[in-house]
Amino acid sequence: MVFERGQLGLRISFRLDDPEALVMLHGQSARDHLEEHQLAPPGVALVQAPPGRWAGSADRG
To answer: What is the pTM assigned to this prediction?
Structure first.
C-alpha cells in the first residue's frame, strides 16, 4: 500500500469520516488532522504535495 501511495505526488482529500481512509491516502501523520478534517465545511480539502514543488515551476526555467 505504501508503494502505491508513494506514486501519488499530489494528494487531495475532501472531508472523510473514516480514519483509515485518511491514513491510506495521506499516511500515519494524517491522524493529527483527523478531527479537523472530519469537521471541515464542504469544499475544504486536505492537500499534501511533495516538498519543494510549486505549481508551474517547470515553466520558470
So the answer is: 0.59
